[in-house]
From TrEMBL, chains A, B:
Keywords: DNA-binding, Transcription, Transcription regulation. It holds the Pfam family GntR. It comes from Pseudonocardia bannensis. Residues 2-69 form the HTH gntR-type domain. Coiled coil: none annotated. This is GntR family transcriptional regulator. GO terms for molecular function: DNA-binding transcription factor activity; sequence-specific DNA binding. PANTHER family: GLUCONATE OPERON TRANSCRIPTIONAL REPRESSOR, TRANSCRIPTIONAL REGULATOR, GNTR FAMILY. CDD domains: WHTH_GntR. The keyword Chaperone does not apply.
DNA sequence: CCCCCCTACATTGCACACAATTCGAGGCCG
DNA sequence: CGGCCTCGAATTGTGTGCAATGTAGGGGGG
């Protein structure tokens, strides 16, 4: 049986990323422990690590809450991704071997298949594929500090779910970008890949900031 | 009494940053617990958080070790700082008010006082001042994602101690940079500050990479 | 003689029990 | 009737014991 703290970490992270628990909500230690069938100890460790990742915030003696993001902070995340991910992508492209290219190609192709509008479109299936694609690029860049910086900043929450926020046009752009990055990698052209990734992040930024603003307006109007 | 886990965190972090424990060395839970007068529980939490910061590495069932850095990884850290800190500095400069300027000025001035060659030079006193200076700039930038990225990547270990690695010339350059950044801030000129910070990081990079290479050569020769 | 396995020890991982702190509710006083 | 205080329940922080895992040393087999 795999480590209980690992399972707890994955389970809670998945809960947050899938949106099962809303931002700002309390995460009680006993509740999580019972739900996962472990004691509070591994749950506490998982929460500590998630706090370091930025997915939750812990106040002393007051427990853990899912992190919530202002629009300004969300824009900051994309600023940072725009600064770092193209750099990582360029490095990754110049280091990828045939097996890496095949794996990236498979991911991009599958994302196009399940993400294209029409019957069979499954926006939720895109989430893990997208994570895998970007994760592989970062790993391929072989730059631990950069990987740590991205991990420390992206905080995937709103960012990595919510493909539902994309309209058809921007979603297709996004999926095409992945394929184009693979093409650039095959061509061994880091600058091409860098440019596409830059566009990719800016496209995502436009979608996400718009979605966040809409959500906020809706909430203010509703109340 | 302040939280035991906080004390443990600070104590262990300080131990590592001050170089009291060499990189690669094991950090036994019981040993630390006895040394700090607490039980293993807060020590474990401290180690978990330090692992998230990157100061230690934890292998399952095999304990925690102080992270050690290859020269390539060290260069990666400075690449990242060169990409992010100038950006943060520019933002900070355009947001600083009179009180911030005074505080930065005081820090820069004091660093010049205690760091200048001659009697009274105290390289170790520079360490906390330097941390404070850079930390204030990052805070002033008011950009949580960027702050998280830097925190996640810098991992201060070798970087933040070791002012001893600087020669007189590069040390004076470094101290002057701080003062010049304050001047740029007073002038309300973000681009000026950005440029100086860029130079500042590159200067530090040259010193640190050189020092790391020397240390490695020395070790290889000696063995 | 070298390699593999097997046993004993040390250390970490987890669960549980207790102490300390926080937040809310009810009552008391002004 | 409103505000403050006190008491209580719930939750987090810490200590300790036990089980599981990794490691080192010695003995047996090839």
């Amino acid at each position: 049986m795999t480590r209980a703290s690992e399972r707890a970490l994955e389970a809670v992270r998945e809960m947050i990323l899938r949106g099962d628990v809303a931002p700002g909500l309390r995460l009680g230690e006993v509740e999580l422990a019972e739900r996962l069938g472990v004691s509070r100890t591994p749950v506490r460790e998982a929460l500590t690590r998630l706090a370091a990742e930025g997915l939750v915030e812990i106040s002393p003696n007051r427990g853990a809450r899912v992190t919530s993001w202002s629009i300004a902070e969300l824009e900051g995340v994309f600023d940072l991704r725009a600064a770092l991910e193209p750099r990582a992508t360029a490095r990754a492209v110049s280091r990828a071997d045939a097996a890496d290219l095949a794996a990236l190609d498979a991911l991009a192709t599958e994302m196009l298949a399940v993400g294209s509008p029409g019957p069979g479109q499954d926006l939720d299936a895109l989430v893990p594929l997208n994570r895998e694609f970007h994760g592989r690029l970062v790993t391929l860049a072989d730059h631990p500090a950069l990987a740590a910086a991205l991990a420390g900043a992206i905080h995937a929450p709103i960012v990595l779910r919510n493909f539902h926020a994309y309209g058809d046009a921007s979603l297709l752009r996004s999926l095409s970008h992945h394929a184009e990055i693979v093409a650039a990698a095959r061509a061994g052209d880091p600058e091409w890949a860098r440019a596409v990734m830059t566009a990719h992040i800016h496209n995502a930024r436009a979608v996400m900031v718009r979605a966040a603003a809409d959500a906020q307006n809706e909430k203010e109007t509703g109340s």
